[in-house]
C-alpha cells in the first residue's frame, strides 16, 4: 500500500505546544483537518491508500490511517476554538484532561507514512518485546516485535488512542531497548518476551 500524510508545521511555537488526539465524527477527518489548517493550526492526518472493490470496479482511495482520529498541536489556549471545528467531537482524555501524545510517536508516524513501505493496521498491543531500529530509514524508532506470515514486523502503538500500525523490518536492523537483540533468535521465530 502507498502511504501519505497531510499537515505541515504551522501556528504556535513548538516549545509551547504539544500533540493531542482529537476524536472526530465518522468521515469528517479530512474536513476537520482542512478547517484546522485553514486557521493556521498545526494538524496531522496520516492517510493510507486502500483499494476499494465494488462489483463492477476497483478504485484506489486515500483513507485515514486511524479512522475517527486527527492530531493537533496546541498549547490548549485555543481548546474551545478547536472543539468548535466542524466534525470535532472531543479531545482524547485521560481522566478529565486532554492526554498529550509524545512528539516522537507523531514523528514515527510521519516517518512511516513518508516511505513507500508496507504499512498496515494492527490490533493494539500492550505487551511484547520492545525494540529500537538501529539502521535504515526507521533508525531510532521504537516498537514491538510481532511475526506475521513468516516475516518480522515492528508495531508502534499510540497509547492515547489505543491504535497501532506495523511495518515489515529485517531482524538485523533492530535491537532490544534494554540490550542488544540476537537476530538469529528472531529469524528462528522466537516468540516475543511477554512483560
Account of the 3D structure:
This protein has 195 residues and is α+β, with helices and mostly antiparallel strands. The protein has two domains: 3-101, Alpha-Beta Plaits; 119-187, SH3 type barrels (Roll). 16% of the residues lie in helices and 40% in strands. Strands 1, 2, 3, 4, 5, 6 and 9 form a seven-stranded antiparallel β-sheet that branches. The protein has a six-stranded antiparallel β-sheet with strand order 10-14-13-12-11-15. It has a two-stranded antiparallel sheet with strand order 7-8. Strand 11 and strand 12 form a beta hairpin. The chain starts with a strand and ends in an 8-residue tail after the last helix. The relative contact order is 0.17. Residues 8-14 and 179-195 have low confidence and may be disordered.
The N- and C-terminal alpha carbons lie at a distance of 32 Å
**What would you give as the CATH superfamily of the largest domain?**
NusG, N-terminal domain
Q: Using only CA atoms, what is the Rg?
A: 18 Å
Q: What letter string, H or E per element, gives the SSE order?
A: EEHEEEHEEEEHEEEEEEH
What would the average pLDDT be, to the nearest integer? 80
Largest β sheet strand count, sense and barrel closure: 7 strands, antiparallel
Helices, by number, come to 4
Q: Would you state the CATH class of the largest domain?
A: Alpha Beta
